[in-house]
Design a protein that fits this description.
CATH superfamily of the largest domain: Gcn5-related N-acetyltransferase (GNAT)
CATH architecture of the largest domain: 3-Layer(aba) Sandwich
Bound molecules: acetyl coenzyme *A
Radius of gyration: 23 Å
Number of domains: 3
Distance between the termini: 33 Å
Strand content: 25-35%
Helix content: 10-25%
Number of helices: 10
CATH class of the largest domain: Alpha Beta
Largest sheet: 7 strands, mixed
Order of helices and strands: EHHEEEHEEEEHHEEEHEEEHEEEEHHEH
Strand order of the largest sheet: 1-2-3-4-5-14-6
Number of strands: 19
Length: 428
């Protein structure tokens, strides 16, 4: 058996599409209503793929934003994955170069023979060579990617609320206005709004080409959940500062009717946030509101007289990170406090390093040193800590970081403390 790991050519698109349908179970594992899949008209590929899908993937294989790699066993594709080049917002607002791992699958007949390990190693080497100091992914299963140095860095909630349980703590007079628009108008508004949102929201990702096309075409997945409704909020000057996409799915089961499903929601201001939820949570003829892919620091409960009315129905990891260049990653972000700590970071793939982090609110320097460390950790824990979504003290109690200087973990938490929980709504 000969194994070759190499990029896929456009001429091999048809064969590549035999592997991709095996990325199943995700996101179908637990359907996450999300208009964000709207851009992926050709996903998942049919078996056998249509001529249009083969053409579309052949074009993707030649695009510069995606770098598929395959394991060829005796000359045939037995497994594949791809890296997409995106930017992630890091604390301080800088854009971090991130290689996003996506569309990973090995044919069922070739699993557990080390093909993914070989593909992953080639892809991470490629990211490092290109200067991507982070890699990231959404994991189909939480047991797969830790061995390659990935670890959860952002988390998301799904919640629901019964309309009869909703009462707002205070009256709100909107200085702006809400408007229902069609997909074409929403398709123009979302890219602009999202650029502004992601400039502020740590963890948010730059959208892939074509991400918004499904909105503009009104072509959302035909999953029976009904047409998408697009809501915009404009401030007093008329600029869009918030938007939501929701559906009112119909079901023959009376228990399932009257659900308003929020698939996308972004607000740049408190006014937009309050106005949009004000309408969505008091929508005639609905019984419940369900919202998915929401940040863990959702302010909404603080607007309600009964904060318990908002029931979390799912919490899970979202963006997993892999730090590929410790110095560049730590120097790319800013910090909540000024301090200096020596971190001993072990990394099975790329070797250990000892780093002095001189952190400050306006940036940092990170220097390779040969001093006694204040904290020892692996590159996995560093990935979870990096955006500020996980505290070092939590990992200390879990036995995942070692405090060598008393008080060092609290000091690390103080410098990494985020303004808001990192979150990303738009995936890749
Ligand atoms: C970012 C994304 O694309 S998420 C989508 C991921 N894809 C899927 O879930 C589709 C279904 N699964 C698959 O196609 C395959 O099982 C893959 C791609 C997850 C793994 O491919 P394989 O070639 O079988 O993995 P490989 O043999 O290299 O395994 C490497 C290691 O991971 C372990 N491993 C692989 N898959 C799994 C799994 N699903 N659960 C737990 N451990 C796993 C192996 O036991 C092995 O462990 P070791 O390092 O201790 O020896």
């Amino acid at each position: 058996m000969t194994i070759e790991i190499r990029p896929i050519t456009a001429a091999e698109a048809n064969e590549y599409l035999r592997v991709l349908p095996y990325v199943n179970g995700f996101p179908q594992e637990e359907p996450e209503p999300s208009a964000w899949y709207a851009g992926s008209a050709a996903w998942p590929p049919q078996v056998p793929p249509t001529a249009a899908q083969v053409e579309e993937y052949a074009a993707d294989l030649q695009a510069d934003w995606i770098r598929p790699q395959a394991a060829f066993v005796d000359g045939k594709i037995a497994g594949a994955s791809a890296i997409v080049s995106v930017q992630v917002t890091v604390p301080g607002g800088q854009q971090g170069a991130l290689g996003g791992v996506t569309s990973t699958a090995v044919l069922p007949t070739y699993r557990r023979r080390g093909l993914l390990r070989k593909i992953m190693s080639a892809m991470l080497d490629d990211c490092r060579e290109r200067g991507e100091f982070l890699a990231g992914l959404s994991a189909s299963e939480a047991t797969i990617y830790g061995r390659y140095g990935f670890s959860p860095a952002t988390f998301q909630h799904r919640w629901e609320v019964r309309r009869t349980d909703v009462a707002f703590r205070s009256e709100f007079t909107d200085p702006g206005a809400l408007e229902l628009v069609d997909g074409a108008v929403a398709g123009e508004a979302w890219p602009v709004l999202h650029e502004r949102v992601r400039a502020e929201r740590v963890g948010e990702i730059s959208p892939l080409p074509g991400k918004w096309e499904g909105l503009a075409a009104g072509g959302l997945p035909a999953d029976g959940s009904g047409p998408a409704h697009h809501l915009l909020h404009r401030d007093a000057s008329g600029a869009v500062d918030g938007a939501a996409i929701f559906r009112l799915p119909w079901s023959p089961d009376p228990a399932q009717t009257g659900v308003l499903q929020v698939e996308a929601f972004e607000a740049l201001t408190s006014d937009a946030y309050r106005a949009l939820w004000g309408l969505l949570l008091d929508f005639d003829l609905t019984k419940r509101v369900v919202a998915a892919r929401r940040p863990v620091d959702e302010p909404l409960r603080w607007m309600l007289t009964n904060p318990r009315a908002l029931k979390l129905t799912r919490t899970r990891d979202n963006l997993w990170l892999r730090v590929l260049d410790v110095r560049r990653a730590l120097e790319a972000r800013t910090y909540a406090a000024t301090d200096s700590l020596v971190l001993d970071v072990s990394d099975d793939l790329y070797g250990a390093g000892r780093w002095r982090l001189d952190a400050a609110p306006d940036g940092a320097t990170c220097t390779a040193v040969d001093e006694e460390p204040d904290i020892s950790l692996t590159v996995n824990e560093l990935a979870s800590l990096y955006l500020g979504g996980v505290r070092a003290s939590e990992l200390l109690y879990a036995g995942r970081v070692l405090e060598r200087t008393p008080g060092a973990v609290s000091r690390l938490d103080a410098v990494l403390r985020p303004d808001r929980a990192p979150h990303n709504a738009v995936g890749f």
